[in-house]
């Protein structure tokens, strides 16, 4: 990691769910993420997914703090900020009626650096060809997750957020994704933030965040 030139900067993030009220999941949390792959690890309920949603710039009630990507502030320029984030939430049901092909076709509108060649490569590596014209709700958990991971990886955004990307994947797909992240770990101008229970031992990381 290069802390002097962070790609993604989070300052004093705080968030807690109002119903039922309880302790804050994140309190005065700050993070500076440079190029390469950073893992966010923690137990169930520790706030991994919540942190990714905050970093993605999603509107979340009661959220506090400041977020910037390459100097672009979420508060001042929300659209420009979100264009620089690749994030397809695996828990979001909003895309369930769309096919993989439709989801992929929509991404260039929100991500100007979307790379169709990268999409073709990831779709092949994750064995998605038989599933492109299926709606998400018709897919297995693993296939659904592979569609969203492939789309996020192809966005070409400075920041790519992946939430438990290995869950329910077959072994060849896990190996492919590990190879993609190993290559990403050497990238000098983009960052990947991955949330999971534990880090893959064989993957070189730019940073590790324990929640």
Description:
The protein is an alpha/beta fold. The protein has a single domain, classed as 3-Layer(aba) Sandwich (Rossmann fold). The chain has six helices and nine strands, in the order βββαββαβαααβαββ. It has helices at 48-55, 78-83, 100-110, 116-125, 141-154, 171-184, and strands at 8-15, 26-33, 36-41, 64-69, 72-73, 85-86, 159-163, 191-196, 207-210. The strands form two sheets. The protein has a five-stranded parallel beta sheet with strand order 6-7-8-3-9, with helices on both faces. Strands 2-1-4-5 form a four-stranded antiparallel beta sheet.
User: Into which percentage range does the β-strand content fall?
Assistant: 15-25%
E-strand count:
9
Give the helix level as a range of percent.
Answer: 25-40%
**The CATH H-level homologous superfamily:** P-loop containing nucleotide triphosphate hydrolases
Kindly provide the name of the CATH class: Alpha Beta
Explain briefly what this protein structure is.
This protein is α/β, with parallel strands linked by helices. The protein has helices at 48-55, 78-83, 100-110, 116-125, 141-154, 171-184, and strands at 8-15, 26-33, 36-41, 64-69, 72-73, 85-86, 159-163, 191-196, 207-210.
Task: List strands and helices in order, with pairings.
Layout: E1 8-15, E2 26-33, E3 36-41, H1 48-55, E4 64-69, E5 72-73, H2 78-83, E6 85-86, H3 100-110, H4 116-125, H5 141-154, E7 159-163, H6 171-184, E8 191-196, E9 207-210
Helix pairs in contact: 4-5
């Amino acid at each position: 990691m290069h802390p002097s030139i962070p790609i993604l900067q989070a300052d004093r993030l705080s968030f807690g769910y109002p119903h039922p009220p309880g302790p804050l999941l994140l309190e005065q949390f700050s993070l500076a993420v440079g190029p390469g792959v950073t893992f966010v690890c923690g137990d169930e309920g520790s706030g991994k997914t919540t942190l990714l949603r905050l970093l993605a710039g999603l509107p979340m009630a009661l959220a506090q703090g400041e977020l910037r990507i390459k100097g672009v502030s979420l508060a001042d320029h929300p659209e420009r900020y979100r264009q620089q984030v690749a994030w397809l939430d695996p828990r979001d049901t909003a895309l369930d009626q769309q096919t993989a092909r439709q989801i992929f076709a929509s991404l260039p509108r929100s991500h100007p650096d979307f790379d169709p060649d990268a999409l073709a490569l990831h779709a092949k590596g994750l064995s998605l060809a038989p599933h492109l014209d299926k709606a998400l709700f018709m897919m297995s958990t693993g296939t659904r997750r592979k569609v969203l991971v492939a789309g996020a990886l192809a966005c070409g955004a400075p920041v790519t957020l992946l939430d438990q990307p290995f869950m329910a994947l077959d072994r060849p797909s896990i190996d492919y994704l590990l190879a993609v992240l190993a290559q990403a770990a050497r990238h000098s101008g983009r960052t990947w933030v991955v949330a999971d229970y534990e880090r893959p031992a064989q993957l070189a990381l730019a940073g590790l965040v324990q929640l």
